[in-house]
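Milestone 3.1: sequence recovery, worked example.
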């Protein structure tokens, strides 16, 4: 079974926004204020800027390779299976651990609503929430997405009310009092809060389930990031303005403490506190729900590639990866009940930073490899400078994590490599962009055909193209791409030789048929199209024979009667294929009338890209 495309643009927004708003907004501002005082606002703004390389790189890769698995899928295709396996397991571990950490964090706000509850009770609530979100995700991604939309909508309403009401209670002198801001403390605080923005990248793991990634993916993710970034700065500004420095540094839950100051009446103040506490709980729930949805797609994608047992890749009749969801939820249950979450959270942050670093490096490798059929909807700005900046920043942040997390991460990497040697190496044999670069040092025309064909299939799925017989024909068609001006007779001779080899025909007779047909009526078409072209064709003996050769010369093909063409679709067919011949002519006519075809055709730098320019053109398709 295949995953179902049920996530809408609003669902993408809710998934990204909900994954970003949790402890980073409801708990961390007090800790950050202790570190940098008034500079906390600058630190949060810088953290958002430091996230941009990861965000824009992820957007480009996701829009070009819209398949579930996120970093695992991209990095496997870019660097190969060992690096892909490490990054996939790291991504899964990081997302699942952060989601479990969010559920454990409900105790902070649950204690405000239920003062008599202790650690055991809140662990039980966290487990119950994990079971609830698991059940919702098992039903379908659509159900999980709708549930996420409702929770995020309530959360955003609460935060908007916090800003609008809290603005009137602010003391702007709080922004001028206190110790002078320190550059060193601001940078260390930036490193502390940076990971708060990491949730936005979770959406990429479920991109295959977006209804229309061409229209919904980019606006949904970008809107989520910039809306939440604005909310972070506004909410933290309100909190600083309402609480003085000493109160803020001592606070365990700064937003609820500030909300209690909004009203003079005790009843109203209590209501405000409870409302914000509910918002805090919602923020942790949305993070956990988004985490289960996105993290579970990683082992599913790894199973598809043969790097995990096949069972993990199974999808139910409702389009949900049941074994992968259950495995992710079971891991979260273990974390909630038994593991040292505080120490593991540092490792999760390190893994997330490692994935960001590899993705930025991977985008550089992908573009330098010149792999055909890499056609992202979004291109990261300032390439490659933004990616180099990201690699440097994420490398520094990894180094700042401390020795113990680095040692734990190192052990994790060794175990992942051991798993690849024992199990994964047997089931994976795809090409990679990195190998393509290395191979081209000695073989300039080397192409990763399997990867290029896979990317073409992804593009067709992304753009909603249902493959028909003409598409299949073009995918396997020979290509003649001349580097200089040629004449018609040379083209006919080359086409005849290629088709004769493919179909067991006589090359000389084929050549005669092309010439005879051309002498009866010219197949050159120059009116109503951007580039003059020809559609020579010949009828051959036999049954069920039909083939097309794609011909291009950027410098022109000298045809008869002073015509010059730049494109030709040379066809042969047996008599029983006359109906399909007419359909092929209709398809070619629609392709050549598409205003975007000429530019894609002329820019194509390989045989694969020439075929792709034909296949991805907007036209009517027949089953």
């Amino acid at each position: 079974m295949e995953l179902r495309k049920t996530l809408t643009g609003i669902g993408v927004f809710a998934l990204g926004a909900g994954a970003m708003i949790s402890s980073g907004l409801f708990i961390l501002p007090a800790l950050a204020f202790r570190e940098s005082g008034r500079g906390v606002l600058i630190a949060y703004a810088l953290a958002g800027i430091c996230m941009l390389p990861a965000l824009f790189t992820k957007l480009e890769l996701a829009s070009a390779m819209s398949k579930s698995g996120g970093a695992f899928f991209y990095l496997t295709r870019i660097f190969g299976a060992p690096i892909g396996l490490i990054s996939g397991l790291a991504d899964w571990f990081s997302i699942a651990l952060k989601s479990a950490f969010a559920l454990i964090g409900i105790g902070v706000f649950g204690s405000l609503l239920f003062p008599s509850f202790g650690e055991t009770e809140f662990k039980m609530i966290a487990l119950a929430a994990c079971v609830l979100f698991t059940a919702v995700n098992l039903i379908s991604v659509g159900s999980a997405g709708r549930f996420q939309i409702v929770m995020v909508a309530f959360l955003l309403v609460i935060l908007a009310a916090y800003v609008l009401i809290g603005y009137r209670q602010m003391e702007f002198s709080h922004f001028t009092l206190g110790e002078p801001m320190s550059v060193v403390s601001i940078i260390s605080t930036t490193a502390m809060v940076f990971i708060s923005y990491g949730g936005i990248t979770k959406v990429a793991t479920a991109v295959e389930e977006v209804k229309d990634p061409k229209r919904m993916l980019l606006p949904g993710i970008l809107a989520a990031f910039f809306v939440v970034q604005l909310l972070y700065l506004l909410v933290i500004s309100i909190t600083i303005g309402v609480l003085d420095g000493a109160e803020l540094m001592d606070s365990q839950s700064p937003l609820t403490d500030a909300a209690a100051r909004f009203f003079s009446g005790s009843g109203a103040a209590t209501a405000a506190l409870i409302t914000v506490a509910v918002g805090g709980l919602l923020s942790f729930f949305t993070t956990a729900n988004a985490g289960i949805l996105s993290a579970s797609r990683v082992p599913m994608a790894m199973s598809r590639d043969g790097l995990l047992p096949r069972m993990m890749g199974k999808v139910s009749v409702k389009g949900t990866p049941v074994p992968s969801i259950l495995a992710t939820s079971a891991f979260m249950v273990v974390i909630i009940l038994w593991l040292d979450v505080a120490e593991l959270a540092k490792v999760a942050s390190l893994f997330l930073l490692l994935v960001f670093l590899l993705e930025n490096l991977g985008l550089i490798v992908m573009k330098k490899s010149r792999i055909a059929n890499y056609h992202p909807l979004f291109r990261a700005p300032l390439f490659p400078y933004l990616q180099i900046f990201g690699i440097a920043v994420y490398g520094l942040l990894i180094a700042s994590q401390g020795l113990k997390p680095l040692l734990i991460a190192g052990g994790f990497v060794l175990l992942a490599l051991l798993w690849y040697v024992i199990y994964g190496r047997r089931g994976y044999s795809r090409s990679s962009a990195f190998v393509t670069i290395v191979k081209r040092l000695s073989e300039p025309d080397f192409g990763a055909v399997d990867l290029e064909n896979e990317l073409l299939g992804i593009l067709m799925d992304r753009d909603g193209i249902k493959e028909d017989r003409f598409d299949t024909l073009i995918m396997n068609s020979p290509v003649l791409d001349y580097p200089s001006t040629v004449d018609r007779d040379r083209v006919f001779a080359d086409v005849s030789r290629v088709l004769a080899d493919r179909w067991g025909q006589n090359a000389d007779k084929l050549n005669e048929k092309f010439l005879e047909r051309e002498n009866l009526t010219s197949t050159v078409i120059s009116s109503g199209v951007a580039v003059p072209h020809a559609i020579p064709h010949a009828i051959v003996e036999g049954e069920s024979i039909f083939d097309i050769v794609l011909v291009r010369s950027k410098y022109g093909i000298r045809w008869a009667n002073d015509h010059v063409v730049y494109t030709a679709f040379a066809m042969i067919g047996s008599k029983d294929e006359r109906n399909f011949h007419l359909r092929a002519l209709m398809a070619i006519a629609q392709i050549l009338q598409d205003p975007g075809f000429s530019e894609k055709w002329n820019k194509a730098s390989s045989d694969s890209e020439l075929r792709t320019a034909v296949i991805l053109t907007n036209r009517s398709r027949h089953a």
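The beta strands are 479-482, 486-487, 524-525, 533-534, 537-539, 546-558, 564-573. The chain has a mean pLDDT of 89.
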